[in-house]
Amino acid sequence: MAPQRRSRVRAWKNLFFSPQWPCCWRRQQLPAAPPAATEKALTLKVVGVHDGDTITGITQANEQVKVRLDAIDSPELKQPFGQAAKKALGDKVFGKTVTVTTKKKDRYGRTVGHILLGKRDINLEMLEEGMSWHYREYSKNKRLQQAEDEAKAGKKGLWKDPNPTPPWEWRKTERDRKGK
Questions:
Q1: pLDDT tens, N- to C-terminus, the chain (180 residues)
Q2: What are the backbone angles phi and psi of residue 77, rounded to the nearest 5°?
Q3: So which residues are the catalytic ones?
Q4: What's the rounded Cα separation, in Å, for the pair 108 and 33?
Q5: In 75, 120, 138, 154, which residue has its Cα 20 to 30 A from 69's Cα atom?
Q6: Is the separation of the CB atoms in 127 and 148 below 8 Å?
Q7: Rg (the chain; Cα; Å)
Q8: Helix, strand, coil % over all residues of the chain, rounded to 5
Q9: pTM of the full predicted structure?
Q10: Which long-range contacts (CB under 8 A, 24 or more apart) does 118-126 make?
Q11: How far is CA 112 from CA 24, 33, 63, 104, 135, in A?
């Protein structure tokens, strides 16, 4: 490499790795993606179901969108009822065109929203069937809480287990176990 070019490369590296550079990955984490416009409707053809609370869809503009169902948390795939929750969600929406009322983007870049299939509220149905927990930390929706309470009283889905482990506790236990 020529001396003049080497000094230009060094100058760019010095700028990039300097504390003044706003997104220097060595000094600070990149800022989170800006939040999506609140309550925006998005029409998707569902092409993938990842677990009981995450889907992938394609817009009419042929853009892929990963959606995390708002206000619910389903068991992880390796947890009891994790595969059943994935199947339940897949049976409801896979291959169908749904409307997602978007709320925001989460820290993983997924769109967080409420899924509607015609007039059916898929988030609510997952709770009614006992395939998810109402994520009270993020939602105070009384209708969703009532659906979880009724599923629990009726011992539906994951509530058949006498002491089911919420996914947020299971994830923490797994992190701690792997960290040791």
A1: 555 555 554 554 454 444 444 444 333 433 433 444 467 999 999 999 999 999 999 999 999 999 999 999 999 999 999 999 999 999 999 999 999 999 999 999 999 999 999 999 999 999 999 999 999 888 999 999 999 999 999 999 999 999 999 999 999 999 998 886
A2: -55, -35
A3: 68, 76, 110
A4: 9
A5: 154
A6: yes
A7: 21
A8: 35, 25, 40
A9: 0.77
A10: 120/92, 122/69, 122/89, 122/92, 122/93, 122/98, 123/69, 123/70, 123/71, 123/72, 125/92, 126/52, 126/53, 126/69, 126/72, 126/74, 126/85, 126/88, 126/89
A11: 28, 13, 16, 5, 13
With tokens 């069937």, the residue in question is 129
Q: How far apart, in whole angstroms, are the C-alpha atoms of residue 137 and residue 54? A: 18
Rounded distance, CA 132 to CA 167, Å? 9
CA 38/CA 180 separation, integer angstroms: 41
* Number of helices (H), then strands (E), in the chain: 5, 8
Rounded to whole angstroms, the Cα distance separating 172 from 169 reads: 5
Residue 143, φ and ψ in degrees, nearest 5: -65, -40
Chain position carrying tokens 């009614």: 128
- The whole-angstrom separation of Cα 1 and Cα 17 is 21
Structure tokens at 42: 């998005």
